[in-house]
Amino acid sequence: MGRFVRIAPIVDERRREKNPRPEKEWMVAVNRCVCHEVTFAELIEMARRDHMTLADLQKATGCGTGCGTCVPYIEIALRTGIADLPILNISRERTETISDKADC
Which residues make beta-bridge pairs with 10? Predict the structure, then answer.
């Protein structure tokens, strides 16, 4: 699973008097193939260093060959170089469009 990442606390000024501690918002970053425990950072590094395609990475590490949920994330990570990705709520067909538009 992705790791928990702390982002800026959100403070509701109306509630500050009652609760002086700011509320914290947490989000999950998807950053690895859970089935084979291979991080996207490792995959990006391998792909760049050894000029590997997704198919090559799958053969070498097994990434994306278990449940397959990470495949769209790996595709985006390889195209953008971003290793910590937000949870996607889209169909697999749309990942190409989104990764093409990503700013790196």
Answer: 23
Is residue 28 helix, strand or coil? Answer: strand
Task: For residue 11, give the amino acid letter.
Answer: V
CA distance 80 to 59: 21
Q: For tokens 């985006």, name the residue.
A: 76
Q: What is the pLDDT along the chain (104 residues), one digit of tens a residue?
A: 445 444 444 445 555 555 555 555 556 789 999 999 999 999 999 999 999 999 999 999 999 999 999 999 999 999 999 999 998 876 555 545 545 545 44
Helix (H) or strand (E) holding 59: helix 54-61
Nearest to 44, CA basis, from 29, 54, 34, 35 = 54
Please, which residues have CB within 8 angstroms of residue 54's CB and are 6 or more apart in sequence? 64, 71, 74, 75, 78
- Is the pTM higher than 0.90? The answer reads no
CA 77/CA 60 separation, integer angstroms: 17
